[in-house]
Amino acid sequence: MDRFDRRTFIKGTGIAGLVGLAGCTGGPTGGGDNESGGGEETTTAGGDTTSESGGNETGNESADGGSSGGSGSDVNVGVVYATGGLGDGSFNDQAQQGIQQAESEYGISYNEAQPDEVSQFKNFQQQFASSTDPNYDLVSCIGFLQADALSEVAPQYPDQSFQIVDSVVEADNVASYVFKEHEGSFLAGQMAGMLTTSSFSAGAGSTNEEKVVGFVGGVEGELIGKFEAGYKAGVKNVSEDIQVQSTYVGSFNEPSGGKEAALSMYNAGADIVYHAAGNTGTGVFQAAQEQGAYAIGVDRDQSVTKSSYQNVILASMVKRVDTAVFNAAEAVVQGNFEGGSVTTLGLEQNGVALVYGQGLKSDIPSDVKSEVESVRESIISGDISVPSDPSNV
Amino acid sequence: MSSETVRGRLTDGELSPQRVAGLVAAVLLAGLVLWGFAFPETQAGRFVAILTDRSTLAATLRLSVPIAFAALGGIFAEKSGVINIGLEGLLIVSAFGGVYMADVTGSVWMGLAAGIVASTLLALLFAVVCIEFRADQIIAGLAIWLIALGLAPFASQVVYGGPNTASVDTVDAIVIPGLSSIPFFGALFSATPFVYLMFGAVAASWWTLNRTSFGRWVNASGENPKALDTAGVNVTRVRYAAVLLSGVLCGFGGAALSLSIGQFVGSGSTMVNGKGFIAIVTYLFGNYNPVGALLSTMLFAGLDALQLTLQARDVFAVPQPLVRTIPYVTVIIVLALFGRTRIPKAAGEHYESGDE
């Protein structure tokens, strides 16, 4: 009997603790966060070219507008990042790059919030939307997990402009930006398929005899499914005989799981693994390095953001989250922000692209590169249609 | 009332429902394995091939490290009468501390040391609150978890500008020539130093608990603190030592977790992601025996490694999200069938030495 009491107690207090945790994480951090956002550049965005100037500015008030040489706009943007947080070397860092670009070009100011839990999205969105000092002209919500919260919050603040990246929220004051991840992933698959069937050796890895490649996903769903579908279709476009192994780790923050998932693939003969798993992907790169094999990064040029893995990152399927964030901020500055619109960024709009890794790009054979380029043109012209659902591959 | 007696009769007899169910499960598993060996081309055959693959064992060992260390820590604390459900928190701070120090000094071993120090300090706080100020152990344990969950990402935010740290070097596997080429078990001889440390810690913990006077004091402090007190041993000091020891062990686990990846990931539930809570289950399942805890940890970690491979090879025609639940479902079943945990009598109770 004693044991039962204790277990129920643990359960009860556990739930109470979780609720408490959700409640006490506080609101968006203002200027302080911005300062550390500036410091972040030094650690993660080493060789990045486009955003360095924006990143060096640590303050967020009027001094910025003057020094950055922009038009000195007084537009204020609130950014709510996805749960991965800054320093993920991919999604959020790239969104930050976009807002920093807007800061340096238009002199806008911005504040950031980094939620740790899905339950905090609503809270942060509301705090930005209801704030009057400063008044935010745009609230940028990064990541598809914010869609549910935003579809509740947006109607409550009809005069506030919102932006959502990676999902569509149907409201008159929300501009939605989505990407054709499957198109970019198709190119990644095309490259992986061509390399695994040829003998390739460069950097810290080499391909093997087996015709196997891998895919590691974060959490199952429509979004990551697009990556998987495009990648598989790209591989199959090279040869139907190539086997694609695919595993979902179930979290975007579990690098140890990502490492084991990738190791299992490499041990089964895979030589190239593509990940769409946020922080979990760090484990994939580590596994590639240990096994002398290759990986393909995602969202951002990860051979730059994760430069210690440069010798195994063949390429990254870059998603220009920065373009989406920058475009929305630009639209607000220029007064042509369109609520209710859905902007789709594919290969054609340069919203997604396959960017070869800094360490290996010169070693990738030119026939692979030219084939990838011609496939890209075929996708843009519509000659190749890329599935967005893995069950249709 | 009547069902109670029926149940009592059944459990007294040779064929308790638990045993029958366990037997059936064992027979089914044995059948599947035999079937797999006999027909290697079938689904069962591919399953057995994965099961007996040396990389599955290697993955199991790596995934076991943080859980096993935390479980050992939990055993010491709880055996001494202090229920430490803050293991998760201790893992989190040591995971961050380890990477931070490794980043600053460039040495993985300094990182490991810093992880242990960070975890031990937090354990000291827990010990002071529970033993000195007689706080409820469960609530204090939860507080430790919540503090760590906020503190580590915050520290990372201050140092690295985001909840995730920079990357640091990792350690290479130590390969013992000859032994490492044995099929399957060769994985035991080609592993990271952390895996060997885990085995060392399990052996040392077993020896300490069963063969030293400190081990007997820890046992007595959890079972009958009054007797220990009467024998002239200071219960408070034994409990302090045990809780601090749990901090040291968790420090090994957390630092090993982050240093084997080379980065601390602090967003969401952090990279520890519930491993401390799994550890509580494994030591309860292992009935406070370090070896038992290691075996149950390896059962869970092994199933976790297995499900990742099963997903990739697409062995069973089951949706991937269901494959991912295999470890949890199996652990619950095994726990229900074989779990016989006897909690130390005085666990969770504050002990105060009688006045002279």
TrEMBL record, chain A:
Biased composition (Gly residues): 23-40
SUPFAM superfamilies in UniProt: Periplasmic binding protein-like I
Stretch list, region Disordered: 21-72
Biased segments, Low complexity type: 41-55
Compartments in which it is found: Cell membrane
UniProt entry keywords in alphabetical sequence: Cell membrane, Lipoprotein, Membrane, Signal
Superkingdom as given in the UniProt entry: Archaea
Main location: membrane
UniProt GO cellular component terms: plasma membrane
Claim: Signal is one of the keywords in the record: yes
Protein name: BMP family protein
Lineage per the UniProt record: Archaea, Methanobacteriati, Methanobacteriota, Stenosarchaea group, Halobacteria
TrEMBL record, chain B:
Official protein name in the record: ABC transporter permease
GO cellular component: a single term: plasma membrane
Listed transmembrane segments: 20-39, 59-77, 82-102, 108-131, 138-162, 182-207, 240-265, 277-301, 322-339
Compartments reported by the entry: Cell membrane
Keywords carried by this UniProt record: Cell membrane, Membrane, Transmembrane, Transmembrane helix
Organism: Halobium salinum
Protein's membrane topology: Multi-pass membrane protein
Keyword Membrane part of the UniProt annotation: yes
Main location: membrane
